[in-house]
Design a protein that fits this description.
Blueprint: H1 3-17, H2 22-39, H3 44-48, H4 52-64, H5 69-89, H6 115-127, H7 132-148, H8 152-156, E1 168-172, E2 178-182, H9 185-197, H10 219-233, H11 241-254, H12 259-266, H13 271-274, H14 276-292
Antiparallel strand pairs: 1-2
Helix pairs in contact: 1-2, 2-5, 4-5, 6-7, 6-10, 7-9, 7-11, 11-14
Length: 299
């Protein structure tokens, strides 16, 4: 067996057995490739023999190369999955990965997650599920919240008749107020992947998102999936499902969206509720100024 054989088997397992998204397959295979070539590995048994201290050294070298805490945490999750796969292929009756905690981000004031962290939360929540369809479900829900600014209750209120999604979606928010939100292609594809994989019949008037036993998906399940992904990525406790909606608003405002349009997209009854995001964006701008301006720390 060669390194190429190892990586090919890993790629097939992710794409065919685990049915991971193309983005996840690329990221996980790339992480495995760096480990395989750094340690000159060419057999499942060699990968299976890697322990926590080996991973710690490998990640230290990656951090020295300039990757962030969040990227290092995502890489650690990918490598743990790769090692568990190799141990199973080697005949290990209990192919658990090495026990190693991911890096933690320094905690500060609550703030919206970055676009990359939002995408990583959705991807890792999907990757961490025990079954493919449950992972596809969690990823789809989180992408609806970040990509379209839905409240968690609004995402979970969708019904079978709402799929397949189009370029926009009409949702009913607080007080029965209806609004139209945009649907990104990545979100549309994620919901389609979930709908195709869901083992329960998605009747027109039944909930689209289902729990493991077929009942309506509860907000608590989404929150727990997000918490697992958040811990693995080293994100602060403020990186909750609802924070994805806040991030949607903050990032749109930072990109030039006007408050009235943002109010409509969020479904706020009053403009005053939307204006909080001007303060959030101003706080972010001031923090960036303090970090970047050569004389800011002396002022």
């Amino acid at each position: 067996m060669s390194a190429a054989d190892l990586l090919g088997a890993w790629r097939r397992h992710l794409a065919e057995s685990r049915r991971r998204s193309p983005h996840t397959v690329r990221a996980y295979v790339a992480a495995a490739s760096r480990l395989v070539h750094a340690r000159d590995l060419s057999a499942f048994e060699q990968v299976a023999a890697i322990e926590a201290h080996d991973l710690r050294r490998h990640l230290a070298a990656r951090r020295a190369g300039g990757i962030s805490n969040a990227s290092a945490a995502r890489e650690l999750s990918a490598l743990k999955a790769f090692i568990a796969f190799a141990r199973a292929e080697s005949g290990d009756p209990d192919p658990a990965p090495p026990r190693l905690r991911g890096p933690r981000l320094r905690k500060g004031l609550p703030r919206p997650v970055t676009p990359d962290d939002a995408a990583n939360l959705a991807e890792l929540a999907g990757d961490s599920a025990r079954e493919h369809w449950i992972g596809a479900r969690d990823r789809a829900v989180l992408l609806l919240m970040y990509g379209s600014g839905l409240r968690i209750a609004e995402a979970l209120s969708l019904q079978g008749r709402d799929v397949p999604l189009g370029e926009t979606l009409q949702v009913t928010g607080k007080g029965g107020k209806q609004r139209v939100v945009p649907i990104l292609p990545i979100t549309r594809d994620a919901v389609a992947e979930y709908a195709a994989a869901c083992p329960w019949p998605l009747s027109a008037k039944e909930p689209l998102f289902r729990g493991a036993k077929g009942g309506p998906l509860s907000p608590g399940m989404v929150q727990r999936a997000t918490a697992r992904a958040r811990r693995a990525l080293g994100l602060p406790d403020s990186a909750t499902p609802h924070a994805l909606r806040h991030s949607f608003a903050t990032h749109l405002l930072g990109a030039g969206a006007d408050l009235r349009s943002l109010q409509e997209l969020l479904g706020h009854a009053s403009l005053g509720s939307t204006q909080i995001y001007t303060r959030v964006d101003a706080a972010s701008l001031l923090e960036n100024y303090r970090l970047a301006h050569p004389r800011a720390k002396k002022a």
